[in-house]
Amino acid sequence: MVSTQGQTPSGLDTESDAEKFTQLYHLYFQPLIRCIKKIVHSDTLAEEIVQETFQRLLRNLGKVDLNQPQRTKAYLVKIAVHIAYDVYSQELKYAPIDITSCQDTLITHSPDPVWEEFNSKGLLSLMQTWISELSEKEQLILRYRFLEKWSYKEIADVFQIPESTASSLYSRIRKRLFEKYLKLQEKGE
């Protein structure tokens, strides 16, 4: 963990490097946490990622110029975002996803007319069943895009697919669910 209180951060050769690092830390730590939290949706994970960002900054301090704040900010954000997507995609690969914990919210809290139709017809439990039949990846895409309002770019980055593919997958998922609904309507249920 990076510490800037009362001591020179390890890995710095000169006092001017220590001052530069400390100044960067104070300027960018909180803004980076806010930025990364939008990606990982966790205060703790965002803080860990930003700490790792500053660890990497220690090794590359010469690439940063305090007189160019826009470039510095862009450089730090780039590092942090790459770490965030790496960490987050690794967690997705290994952490079990419980889509049922958000299904009620996914279905009932939407201005989308398709979902409102399901809700108004009392089909929530049927929708939950249909969603649970989707692959884990499809459930995640549906959750991230619909419930958590992620952009297609964010989804594409997490799954390491093109943005257009993320958009197409989301559209196909919605279409399949709606087709199940239409078949149910045709049966008169």
> Span from first to last CA?
59 Å
Q: Can you count the helices?
A: 9
Number of strands: 0
Mean pLDDT: 76
Spans of 5+ residues with little confidence (pLDDT < 50)?
1-9, 92-110
What is the string of helix and strand elements? HHHHHHHHH
Protein name: Sigma-70 family RNA polymerase sigma factor
Keywords: DNA-binding, Sigma factor, Transcription, Transcription regulation
Family: Belongs to the sigma-70 factor family. ECF subfamily.
Pfam families: Sigma70_r2 (PF04542), Sigma70_r4 (PF04545)
Can you offer a commentary on this structure?
With 189 residues, the protein is mainly alpha-helical. 74% of the residues lie in helices and 0% in strands. The chain is elongated. Keywords: DNA-binding, Sigma factor, Transcription, Transcription regulation. Belongs to the sigma-70 factor family. ECF subfamily. GO terms for molecular function: DNA binding; sigma factor activity. This is Sigma-70 family RNA polymerase sigma factor.
What is shown here, in short?
The chain is mostly helical and 189 residues long.
Topology, element by element:
Blueprint: H1 15-40, H2 43-59, H3 69-94, H4 100-108, H5 113-120, H6 124-132, H7 136-147, H8 152-159, H9 163-186
Helix pairs in contact: 1-2, 1-3, 2-3, 4-6, 7-9, 8-9
Attribute tags:
9 helices, disordered N terminus, single chain, elongated, 189 residues
